[in-house]
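cron nightly-structures :: item 1 of 1
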Amino acid sequence: MTKGLTRPRDPVQLAATIIGLATGQISESEVVADRAPKRRAGGIEGGRARAKALTSARRTEIAQAGARARWGGRAGQSPGEG
């Protein structure tokens, strides 16, 4: 059994999807199957582009901010120096 039909949030696209389903022009499996590969591909492309655009210093800043958010502490402090 599938997790469920993912319907568009935009009212116009939602109406078009409902009409397509009601008239049999599209099936529920087409609606679900159509989106997943596109989202995955977009995420992969975006991640690569972001990694290529960031400098080493900026990546370090992002990592430190993430560590502070996760474990607390001050900037520049090693995790073992709590």
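cron nightly-structures :: done
The helical segments are 11-23, 28-53, 56-71.
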